[in-house]
Each structure stands twice: as structure tokens, then as C-alpha cells.
What we know:
- With 97 residues, the protein is mainly α.
- It has two domains: 1-39; 51-97, no CATH class.
- The protein is built from four helices and no strands.
- It has helices at residues 6-34, 42-48, 50-79, 87-96.
- The chain is rod-shaped, with a radius of gyration of 33 Å.
- The mean pLDDT is 77.
Amino acid sequence: MVHRTWLQSLMSSRADVTISAAVRWIRAYAVLRTFAGRLPTLARVLVAIAPPLAAPGLIASGILAFVFSWNEFSIALNLTSRDTATVPVAIARFAQL
């Protein structure tokens, strides 16, 4: 029996682990290649999954943006004069003429 140093045993065990990991990756790649036609593409996943998940947040953000802008418009409409009016207030006053 050959006496091995700790470095030799470490190197051989790492080589075994590396080889077994490579074999697992090759097998996984073969499985993926076999079922590649059945796997959904990234674009299909983004179109089918992302919009339904993002819709409630986008709707809530839109409502908050509308409410905040409407509040800002009403304050600007009541507190500004004709010379210091913002563009939305000036358009609203022009439409009333």
C-alpha cells in the first residue's frame, strides 16, 4: 500500500468531486436538450407572468399619481394669480374664457 500525503489525498478527492460534478452537469444538459422544445422561453414567461403580477402595483401607482396631481392642481388653482400660474392652471383658466 502506498502512503499518500494529505495534499495528494486532497487533490485526488477534489478531482473525484470535479469529475462527478462535470458528469452531473453533462447529464443535466442532456436532459435540458431533450426537453428544450417543451420549456417556455423567457419572452413567453415575461408576457404570461410578469404583467398579471405587476398590474395591481401599476394601478395603485397610477391612482396615487392622479390624486397627488389633482391635489396639487386644486391648490395651484386657488392660490396663484394670473401672472404666477402654472401651465395646467393657465390652461384651465384659458378653457373657461
